Amino acid sequence: MSTATGSDGQAQGRSQGYFPRWTLKTSGVIMPEERLPLGQTIVAGLQHGVAMSGGTIIAPLLMGFDPNVALLFSGIGTLIFFVVVAGRVPSYLGSSFAFIAVVIAATGYAGHGPNPNLSVALGGIVGVGVLYGVIALVVMWSGVGWLERLMPPVVTGAVVAAIGLNLAPVAVKSVSAGTFDTWIGLVTVLVIGVIGVAAPGMWRRLPIILGAIGGYLLYWLVANGFGLGKPIDFTRLAAAPWIGLPGFTTPTFQADAIVLIAPVALILVAENLGHIKAIGAMTGRSLDGFLGRAFLGDSLATIASACGGGTGVTTYAENIGVMAATKVYSTLLFAVAALVSILLGFSPKFGALILSIPGPVIGGLSIVLFGLIAAMAGRIWVENKVDFANPANLITVAVALTAGAGDLTLKFGAFTIGGIGTATFGAIILYQILTSSLAQHAE
């Protein structure tokens, strides 16, 4: 099994024990093995909870899953990931959107209410986790060399950019229902930007959560107070109990559903690889030595989630966006966010509160976060000195960005690959063809 590390700092951290000794730091860039004061750690952890909550709750709703179960297992999965990577890779695991198309196809879900074939979908998601785990073990045993040859920085950057661009229409649609919604979304974006650039002290580290609060209050004031927009309906929030068990479901295993859903593991590998590369670019240190562990942690978290009725999970790009905006990479923030998610998973009232956030506010947050995801690709390319004078690199990126942004969908019988999958596999395959010995010989 490979024991290579990505940096001297990681090797030193390992010599000190399985987990790092988080050292206190109150200003500047906060690295993964550093920590903020306790109060700031809790508040910054809550910000990551806000960043992941929209996707982690919306994705299960689109598949007919219980959002509180998804929230609970996102927290459990993040703690599993935290332990497997020895607390050295800052990531939050939330509901993966890569499962939506195949889950709907496998279960025949009608698009509203509980999914009557939820257990069948869960069996397929367990299959994804198992296949993902096998890939993780291969990486841990053989290293990441073959994976880097398959997905070099030009490809991983293209995948990261494609993910952000693919999600962009979702954000824009959320603020496009009318002029009122558009202005609320744009003001939310402005609030986030002003806080991230000009707020004093620790407040500058909280642009997302403060932007969400500011946008929510503005919407409530203008819509509920002055009647200039659709008012926020607090009926469901008032009726929801503070504490309650979510609806757990166990998986059933059907071969056709497993075959249909399991290939999503390849998309999760590419997505996770891109995310880890992005974090490495932001922190200025390679995390390649933890890639196998990251894959394994994600796979185990996905299996655990599906065994209880939750969605498949993945490292969340939204939280990478928060780190890009705040320059705080302390892994302790994600332990805090995970614990809070577990507690809130048992609170139907919290789920109702999240669902009460107006769409234009979520849209404003998404514009910033999804844009930051796409922008991270640029940093990957710059840090790795990707040569765009090379036609192979240029064409690979061009095709991946167009496929991702345009949501190019491919169908192979009952199996459907959405825009992210098409961009991912397209970038991998196209790059290998364009850089093959045949292409080099032709040159």
Automatic annotation (TrEMBL):
The annotated topology with respect to the bilayer is: Multi-pass membrane protein
InterPro entries, per the entry: NCS2, Xan_ur_permease
- Recorded GO CC terms: plasma membrane
The protein's location, in the record's own words, is: Cell membrane
Task: Alphabetically list the UniProt keywords.
Answer: Cell membrane, Membrane, Transmembrane, Transmembrane helix, Transport
Q: TM segments?
A: 69-86, 92-111, 118-144, 150-171, 183-202, 208-228, 328-346, 352-376, 388-406, 412-434
Query: A single GO molecular function, which one?
Result: xanthine transmembrane transporter activity
**Keyword Transmembrane listed:** yes
Q: Which PROSITE patterns match?
A: XANTH_URACIL_PERMASE (PS01116)
**Record keywords: Nucleotidyltransferase included?**
no
Q: Which family does it belong to?
A: Belongs to the nucleobase:cation symporter-2 (NCS2) (TC 2.A.40) family.
Q: What is this protein called?
A: Pyrimidine utilization transport protein G
